[in-house]
């Protein structure tokens, strides 16, 4: 039985990657930080190993005897009071994983990057694997740290490490425990905390499809190649209307002008910085990112990897049911989203 190490298995995508691997008969070892809640991994019969990706010795120990590595772990926040920590996790942590994989002779590494480091859509053109963004155009420490991390991965590929890079778009589904920024859209909608919306767009995808594509990439993915893991391009308005159909709630009525929201976000972030570590209500980086539609051509992963394309509606329903079932949101099925 092949053994796979999954970093970030306590997170949203990482959990589903571990689950997909177990379904295919892999022996899964999950690298989780000390203090992380990993009880739900027991249901997968995955082996939790305590360690931090910033600790090279712990990484090397966790990787011992593994045939494959899925490096999913990342610090994903739209606002960080401590950006140095984010760079240490996302950049140096990735270097540690790659170096340990090379030293251990791992047969294949699947690295989870992000479409956030690709150039967004422009006019009728959708973003693709072939159009990277320039570092100075990237908004926020998350995107910049992931950009730098991928540059390090490319160096290891050049040295002979067999790495395939995957770039998820905006996954939705169950087990979004934090929740992620995309999941928070769903939670805020369910709780009536979205009286209005910005004119922006994202590519949404079922998190189970993303996980399946990780496993497919380990076999069908070409070393050194990148694959966008996505499905449907939707404006935020369209996505909120989808949630309205699924829940019986009314969608937000008002589209907000960008500039006033940006000004409020600057003030909100300044207040958070001055008054402590509480995250701003309106993340500045999130507003700045909303200026451009993040629409992508996802055909390469479908054609080359065989990535499934379950409907975004199905994934959204699973997210709604899970958030309600776990008490993140009201279970009522009707009402105005702007009350």
Describe this protein's structure.
There is one protein chain. The protein has about 350 residues and is an alpha/beta fold. The protein has a domain of about 220 residues: NAD(P)-binding Rossmann-like Domain (Rossmann fold), CATH 3.40.50. It is about 40% helix and about 15% strand. It has eleven helices and 14 strands. The protein has a seven-stranded parallel β-sheet with strand order 3-2-1-4-5-6-10, with helices on both faces. Helix 4 links the parallel strand 5 and strand 6. Helix 2 crosses helix 3 and helix 7 packs across helix 11. The protein is globular, with a radius of gyration of 19 Å. The relative contact order is 0.14. The C terminus is likely disordered.
SS field, number of helical segments: 11
Number of strands: 14
Global shape:
globular
| Average pLDDT figure | 89
Instruction: Kindly report the CATH topology of one domain.
Output: Rossmann fold
Helix and strand sequence: EHEEHEHEHEEHEEHEEHEEHHHHE
Q: Which sheet architecture does the biggest sheet show?
A: 7 strands, parallel
Rg calculated over all Cα atoms: 19 Å
